[in-house]
Amino acid sequence: MSPSTFPIDPPAGRVPGTVWGGPSLRRLWPSDGPAVQAFFLRLDPDTRASRFMAAMNDRTIAAYAAQAMTAPGLVVGVFVDGTLRALGELRPYGLGRTDARTGEVALTVERGFRRLGLGSRLLRRLAEAARNHGIAELRLRCLPHNAPMRRLVAGLGAEVRLTEGESEGAIRLARATPLSLWREGFEVALDFSLAVAALPLPAPLPAPLPLPFLRRAA
Known about the structure:
The chain is of the alpha+beta class. It has helices at residues 33-42, 45-52, 58-68, 118-132, 147-155, 178-198, 211-217; strands spanning 24-27, 74-80, 83-92, 102-109, 137-142, 159-163, 166-172. The protein has a 7-stranded mixed beta sheet with strand order 1-2-3-4-5-7-6, with helices on both faces. Helix 4 links the parallel strand 4 and strand 5.
């Protein structure tokens, strides 16, 4: 399979990771843990089953979300009006495998925010990060009836195969370029700044003691 040629460059004139007046995409950090947990717990049963390939209860979902930000890999998300509505994960492919040149991607878009191109944006961001870290192939899995995901993967030039009751697509990635490396570095710095700006303000410090009291204490 030839290297993927799907576009990963941001549209000209736009800051990477953002759309003017629309959703904002950025890398997620451990401080985003509560938003990630709230996102997964909001998912309806069908979306949960599509993401995890099985029915998942709240307890199992919460346990997964609790470790999602510390597990190996990269997580990016799309915020709409300050709320996380779509999430993409890049993880090492296969439990216990040693092939560092293969990664696995999982995409989840909350119901009501689909057909907006959010999944494609997440995948482009993760694909660029993957190629910049030496990953040559991305794998994506979904249930056979998940037609939107199958169309997304196939539309990016991936070969989609049905194996053991699930569909799997493989996307070959081109090698990193100086431009792709620079762009990722810029985006990570911007993402970190946006994450810091989203943190709640710290509690105000206590008022300083009056100077006469300090002199008496001395």
